[in-house]
Amino acid sequence: MNILGLAKHGLNGFEQIAIVGVLVVALISLVYAWLLRNTVMKKDKGSEKMQEVWDAIRVGAESYLSKQLKTILPSVAILFIAMFFSVYVVTPTAEAVEEFPENTRLIIAVGRAIAFILGASFSLIVGQLGMRMAIQASVRSASAAKRKFNEALSIAYYAGTYTGMLTDGLGLLGGTIIFVVFGKASPDALLGFGFGGTLIALFMRVGGGIYTKAADVGADLVGKVEKDIPEDDPRNAAVIADLVGDNVGDCAGMAADIFESYEVTIVSALILGLALMSQDPTHSLKWIVYPLIIRGIGVISSILGTFTVPIWEKFPIKFLRAHDAEESMFRSYEVSSINTVVWSFIVGILYVGGPDGWKLALLTTIGVALAVAFNPITSYFTSTKYPPVREIVDSTKTGSATTILSGLSIGMESSVWALIVLAVGFFFSTLIYIGQPLHIIYGIAMLGIGMLSHTGNNVAMDSFGPISDNANGIGEMAWHDQNDENTLMARQTMADLDAVGNTTKAITKGIAIASAVIAAVSLFASYITDVKKVQEVANVKILESINVADPTVFIGLLLGAALPWLISSLSIKAVSRAAMKIVEEVRRQFKIPGIMEGTTKPDYAEVVAISTISSQKELVPMATIAVLMPLVVGLVFGVEALGGFLAGVIVSGQLLAVFMANTGGAWDNAKKSVEDQPRDLVANTGKGSERHKAAVVGDTVGDPLKDTAGPALNPMIKVVNLVSLIAAPVIVNYVDSPYKWIVVAVLLAAIIWAITGSKKKVVME
471-486 pLDDT, tens per residue? Predict the structure, then answer.
């Protein structure tokens, strides 16, 4: 048997059928996405006024993505060349020579460069098509709200699932095709694939985050606090930019973010699987094939789970019936989880066999459990149902300062519990493979495989947030002068879905951060494994571990811990600068006669332009810092110090990212709780009250934390780890080159340019 030429890679008959099955599952995922798109697109777009608002959002979002693409293409072209030479100038791996005995360097170098473009392209496709689908769904969900709650929910969720299935399908398709072509040498090419996806995710996260929060902060400060008007009031010039930002930040950005986490965990699993295979007396390919099979099972599980969401509220068995949209989504996640766990044990026992079979299945199960565990933890700290958010609501009685302080303390505590959950997962890997260091770190990679097996569900839940938010905004703007019973019910429906979406966004941010950390830890382990291989070939001292007592390693650790703070500082400053411009513009427009009276239409396009230009300015500097910093550390202090640098980035980045995401989410929902209270200025409750103004200030401070700086750290952590993995062989081979210091000087100059350039004021075109 030799299906697709897979026999040459050493795969047996079952393994060949399994790999083909994984490819078929990837295609099924894409077909399911297409069917969901058709289902959503058949729905009614509502009144002419609704479509007018929707069209302004669509044009603004597409204009932003078009400009973003032009900004990042030069960087992609430069890094395409860098990917080629990162392989071509070093000695090929033994696996590469085995798979391609002739022209090894050239084949692998071209493979990595093409895989980089493929990863970048797939990440762009997921982000751009997902965002466009979200925009199409928002107006249709708003229209459906006047008919049925479940219809509005289904449209928003299915549109999010479309993006999730694209993420699953393209991620699985790309990774599996690379394995089919390169076999045991696939990690060399997959590093390029993962880096392409990660780089685009960083661009989308940074750009989209700055865009959305600059507009949001500007709209809230002037509209809610100064003018005491509703959130999506059509008189506010920043309202369209705010709605556009939800799409380019949360839809495009999150989809690209989770896509690259999806790929990076496969990269690390295959690198570590190859290392295990070389130690295995039977040289079994089970360590490589099992993760791919689990990914295929996860896609099927996501399809089953997401399909059931609209069913739960009408489930025939009463005690199993869901009470709200949030519970329906959690039920769908449970369906997916059960299916993946059952099949992981079946595959583990029947295919892998022996003790390793149940151990790998158990690790997959723990990974799934970690993702499930992050749902209630994040929900506890960010949902209006639980004490932390209610504590913030109470603190608004005494003003903005106490609101800020209570939110900060809650966010800090949530970081600790999130880290403990991850530590428990890592501890289980240690217990399962006690005394086997390489198996333990492979087990951590399998935790990531399990955790992201339901990427379709995760992306669907995240995209549901901005879709329902936009639908609510479209309804607010189009129905502001309508007060009939049907419209009031529709408004309540959209408000309820928006509140649920706020929680699901926070939950999926938690999963995205956790998956980024697991991916980074497994990449960190892969880094040590790969460096040892390169050092063996180069006949130099072998790196067995990272010794933090070594002063140079400790310097690397400190620099790594500082990097997330630098990136966060620059991104928050970028939001602040852009928001100041938007505040000035919105204030200027409110002074125009007829704006407050509603007889003159604001110039929405001017604020959209400010947000777009401000966000584009930051893309290249942020990426430059993330890509070049590990190179400088590695060249100056060596590969062991670079390992310390990676450890610092991972720990500091995880704590900071969770803190910012949950703090912002808690403040946001606290504001919504105050807004849901009856308006009574004497009792100091409801919209327009002093409590409301304090809550808005908290939410405004939290916006750039949860939607800009926090999410930007996910791809940044993985960019740093992937750059280190890719650069390690070059550093080992050329660390004593007389030209090294010239390269270091150029890299430092580029980093200084990036930092100073990021701090410059925005100049409007």
Answer: 888 888 887 777 777 8
